[in-house]
Amino acid sequence: MIVSGGTYMFGERLRNARKSRKISQDELAKVIDVSKGTISNYENGVSFPNEEKLIKISERLNVSFDYLLGRIDDPDMTLEEYINKKSEEEDIIGLHFSKEELKSLSKEKIDSIIDFVNYQIESEKKKR
Known about the structure:
Layout: H1 6-20, H2 25-32, H3 36-43, H4 51-61, H5 65-68, H6 79-89, H7 93-96, H8 99-102, H9 107-127
Helix pairs in contact: 2-3
């Protein structure tokens, strides 16, 4: 289960979230029932937790899966909240895509859709 940024991004985000919440590798390891070395392996991109462990990590660190997996940059926001926020900011994205369709995309792909549409609009304005 490796998405957009892969295990490296996950590891970096895991470490940042853990440290910002002042939780040691030992403490997190006990909560998710693994060794401290396993937490170190997660953080260094050597291995990746299974779904059960990922849920426990997310709950203990109080961050969204989408943040840990690199789909969004705000640890307190879910991908659905990000899509809703972007849809409100950029009415363009909601014109042709349902929220269900957008949920399968990464933050980067959503942003690139918005950027592309905005670029096309600006190009047309310059032609006039």
